[in-house]
Design brief:
With 318 residues, the protein is α/β, with parallel strands linked by helices. The chain folds into two domains: 128 residues, Nucleotidyltransferase, domain 5; 174 residues, Nucleotidyltransferase, domain 5. Helices cover 39% and strands 19% of the residues. It is built from ten helices and twelve strands. The chain is globular, with a radius of gyration of 19 Å. Bound molecules: zinc ion. Zinc ion binds next to loops.
Length: 318
Amino acid sequence: MHTVGVDLGGTNIGTVVLDDDDEVIGYAKRKTPTRGDHNRVVDVIVGGVHDAIDDAGLSVKKIDAVGVGTPGVVVDGTVGDASNVPGFQVRFSLGDLVSDLVDKPVRVVNDVTAGAVAEHRSGAGRGWNQVLCVFAGTGVGGGLILDGRVFEGAHGGAGEFGHQVIRQGGAVCPCGRRGCVEAYAGRQAMTLAAERHIASGGSTVLFDVMKKKGKSRPTSGVFSDALDLGDVFVADLIDDCISALAAGIATSVNLLDLEGVVLGGGLADKLGKPFRARVEAAMQPHLFFSPPKVELVSAALGDNGGAIGAALLSREVA
Ligand SMILES: [Zn+2]
């Protein structure tokens, strides 16, 4: 069986073709449109699907199903409430539109859930049945695998790791509430904190590094470089980010008795092993029971995880 998986992000649309052995045999990447309606995005998704099939050296008729991982809330093939993709705020039937254009069965899944499924089945969480995957990037997402299966909760909203409250009345989160993990550990919130710091007369090299790297916003690589340059403000932000992730992960472990936790996302990937090790050390004092030791491991699939997970999940509709 061959399946195609799409990872729709706010910046890029990554697409993979998977074979029977879960190997990626084709790959494509296109820019996500920044304007227009959802049909424009769907056209680019479909273009990427064909690019990836070409890259794999296959014909379309060899493809059994397509999976699409998207931000936002997914219900029965429809998506809505995705703020960073044009036209994806108002709910529409993404699955039907893509299916009509590629003439294949299509499964639509949340992008973070797709990433978690990929890490569980063929990445860093392989072999565990009770796993939390945490992805720290622009925001902080999470996906839960319980008893070996994706756990979506009563209304599909489970796994919102980033919006656990770790400090009552704490910092404002991009979601509008206070004291969430993401208010301290998401790149968007960290960037806003840096802007406020500058506005109130503080100093940081963060935005100089951003300009030097030709970026329009501080990426994970910009944060990493500013940290390496010894920027005190950025070092404090990263300290708070680590404390928040550690508190959130330990709370999840205490609630669910997990075997392991996979830590990924742009920020975790860029800051690498020392970052993971610091989160692991910081979570220990919060853990209610020990032993057994819960493992915190780095995600193994990087940028391709979401697309691989979408392809794996699409097998269920093939
Ligand atoms: Zn929040």
